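Lab notebook, bench 4. The sequencing result for the construct came back, and we need a structural model before the next group meeting so we can plan mutations. Quick request posted to the team channel:

Model the 3D structure of this chain.
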Amino acid sequence: MMATSKKPDDSQLEQRVNDAQILFDEADDVPVEKKTYEEALGLYLLSPSSALPELARLKVAKENLSRLGFDVTIDKAAANQHMRFAGADEERAKAFSRAAKSDADIVMATRGGYGLSRLLPYIDWKLLEKNPKKYVGYSDFTAFNLALLAKTGMTSFTGPNAVGDFGGNQVDDLIADIFVESMRGELEILSFETKDADDVDAEGILWGGNLALVASLVGTPYLPKIKKGILFLEDVSEHPYRVERLLTQLLHAGILDKQKAIVLGDFNDYKLVKSDNGYDMPEVIRWLRREVKVPVITGLPYGHADMRVTLPIGKKVGVATQDGMAYLLLDKHEHHDHEHGEDCKVCKGDKKKSSKKKHKK
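Done. Here's the predicted structure in token form:
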């Protein structure tokens, strides 16, 4: 059953937009901005999935991340290669133990690809629980994000990978800014445009990631049992019928209808054929809405396209939609003087900072 949000008037809506930490629109790649921080955050880079195709980009990533205020350490096996993987399974699993024992605040994957699911039985989850870090990555890293939550209850982050997002001469400013602010606890509200979102005003555990990886963990001890959560999903190079098939697996497993909202990111880089006869991703989304009894929100700037935000996995957040905009309240504080009524859950948080970042095409 859908939860609906209380409708604010025009002035309240304007205030709500101004309160948002990020108003997303497409951003062109720009050089990394040099920012000065009193204290650098320790950042440990490891390669848990596919081997790096261009080792030189790892050095560039270290330099760019250093400019953003991180003290970067590269795992000794990050550049290894074993067949298509960045080392044998046991070797890649041990990198997580080295990262846990390090002084770093954050542990980031160098890239995605394939191979992390193979590591799950070999990772020392108790060691990671005793030495908490902020783990971040996306795509194949979804397997680790969800397994960490299932095995330890710890939150982690889905966001950029080191080489893919910071290994070039130019880095997207929004990807970098949102990542830095997330790691420093400065990102409170994320807002983004949505063309056809259902009405929702709810709170729940934020979880999800790459759809194929989420579906692959069904029936295993590595998929967290989240009820009344906010499930976000993306995928790449999967034909719409394959996306629907993966969603069907989650539907039949009873997962989708247990959520308070389903938030869809990018589903891109696929090719239709003549026999599809009009069947495309919009039809998959229409099918999904017919099948589930929870709100569906589209437009999340997350996935394998040009833009990907950094999101906490395993954290309770708020979600609301209003007139073509969606809002994720990622951090809640005590002294918020909100104007949208007591029923507006997403606005019950202190305006820790109001940078009002906007990027227009």
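Residues 1-33, 334-342, 345-361 have pLDDT under 50 and may be disordered.
Will bring this to the meeting.
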